[in-house]
């Protein structure tokens, strides 16, 4: 296993979710670059450091012991990885203060280290929330691999923090070093909202929600084919995003019981607010989790899923395959998983390996809606 070696620490790190013969490591040259830069520049012991979007804990854990570290991201899996990797590297699991991206920060911070996220709206929201949270003389340093660093990231740092100096590239990684200035006050453009015709609801979307400006075409294809006449069935919306599948289903199934799960804290926040706006005080469980990993076996009758095909910048069907396995485990015998997917992804054959029956419910030129029965 590769070891992250910097002037601060030598770390053995694992990714989440874990998979056998993991082809990817849990850190990259951008993590190394920003830590080496910080060591060269020096930072007083016990400084308050905020780490944003630390995928698996490389930055936060490196600084444990010498700094007071707060870590904030929008990923339940990243939070889980941070806790596991703290213990793996002989620290207490709570040695870092963890703040979900849906919660406010409590500064002031002497230094902010930012892994530039895939969604620039999340970066914008995070930078806006740094208002009033920076100590005098604070440093704000963003880092990413060059191929994942859009020019707009520097523009956002300049707009909300101050002048930005881009470093030379090292091992295909770059730093954006911002000098804080008095700016603002700023009003966040998030959450965004859009209105649907069928069902006639308004959906609120916090900054990191998938397709926050409008309904994605996969969900649009899925909605007319959601299962009906569910009675008092126990239904989960797996990877719920803003909650639209569960809400649309619940409006047509007044006695069904719903659980909405996503690994994004902002998605869960959006889904709960949308559920309450559409369905009032109707009972629901909404939680951030590693898919259905926290769901009891044989506890669901129906699972609805529009599976993702990427984790941060990594594209593949590993997460979808894992969600299908989790759904099978959580469903009762005779229960059903309903999914929408791009035709080219070949989900039918994958589901057939796990479920006793797979049928095509509907199709468009681009998508198929499948039902897999346990």
Structure description:
With 374 residues, the chain is α/β, with parallel strands linked by helices. The chain has two domains: 176 residues, 3-Layer(aba) Sandwich (Rossmann fold), CATH 3.40.50; 182 residues, Rossmann fold, CATH 3.40.50. Helix content is 27%, strand content 29%. It contains ten helices and 20 strands. The strands form five sheets. It has a seven-stranded mixed beta sheet with strand order 5-4-3-6-7-9-8, with helices on both faces. A seven-stranded mixed beta sheet has the order 14-13-12-15-18-20-19. The chain has a two-stranded antiparallel ribbon with strand order 1-2. Helix 4 packs parallel to helix 5 and helix 7 packs parallel to helix 8. The radius of gyration is 22 Å and the shape is globular.
In short:
The protein has 374 residues and is of the alpha/beta class. Helices cover 27% and strands 29% of the residues. Strands 5-4-3-6-7-9-8 form a seven-stranded mixed β-sheet, sandwiched between helices.
């Amino acid at each position: 296993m590769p070891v992250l070696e910097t002037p601060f620490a030598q770390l053995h790190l694992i990714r989440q979710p874990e998979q056998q013969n993991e082809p990817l490591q849990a850190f990259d040259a951008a993590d190394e670059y920003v830590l080496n830069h910080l060591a060269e520049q020096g930072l007083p012991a016990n400084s308050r450091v905020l780490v944003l979007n630390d995928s698996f804990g490389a930055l936060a854990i490196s600084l444990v012991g010498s700094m007071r570290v707060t870590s904030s991201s929008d990923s339940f899996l990243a939070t889980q990885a941070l806790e596991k990797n703290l213990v793996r590297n002989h620290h207490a699991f709570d040695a870092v203060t963890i703040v979900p991206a849906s919660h406010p920060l409590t500064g002031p911070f002497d230094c902010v280290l930012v892994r530039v996220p895939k969604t620039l709206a999340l970066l914008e929201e995070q930078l806006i929330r740094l208002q009033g949270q920076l100590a005098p003389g604070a440093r704000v340093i963003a880092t990413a691999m060059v191929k994942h660093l859009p020019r707009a990231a520097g523009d956002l740092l300049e707009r909300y923090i101050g002048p930005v100096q881009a470093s030379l590239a090292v091992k295909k990684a770059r730093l954006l070093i911002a000098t804080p200035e008095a700016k603002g006050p700023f009003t966040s453009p998030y959450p965004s909202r859009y209105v649907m015709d069928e069902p006639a609801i308004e959906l609120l979307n916090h900054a990191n929600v998938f397709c926050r400006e409008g309904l994605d075409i996969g969900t649009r294809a899925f909605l007319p084919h959601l299962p009906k006449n569910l009675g008092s069935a126990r239904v989960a919306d797996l990877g719920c995003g803003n909650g639209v599948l569960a809400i649309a289903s619940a409006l047509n199934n007044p006695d069904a019981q719903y659980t909405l799960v996503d690994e994004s804290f902002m998605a869960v926040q959006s889904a709960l607010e949308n559920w309450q706006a559409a369905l009032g005080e109707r009972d629901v469980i909404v939680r951030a989790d590693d898919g259905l990993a926290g769901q009891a076996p044989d506890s669901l009758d129906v699972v609805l899923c529009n599976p993702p095909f990427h984790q941060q910048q990594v594209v593949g069907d590993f997460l979808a395959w894992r969600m299908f396995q989790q759904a099978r485990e959580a469903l009762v015998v005779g229960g059903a998983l309903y999914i929408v997917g791009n035709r080219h992804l070949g989900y039918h054959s994958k589901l057939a390996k796990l479920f006793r029956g797979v049928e095509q419910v509907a199709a468009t030129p681009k998508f198929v809606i499948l039902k897999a029965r346990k």
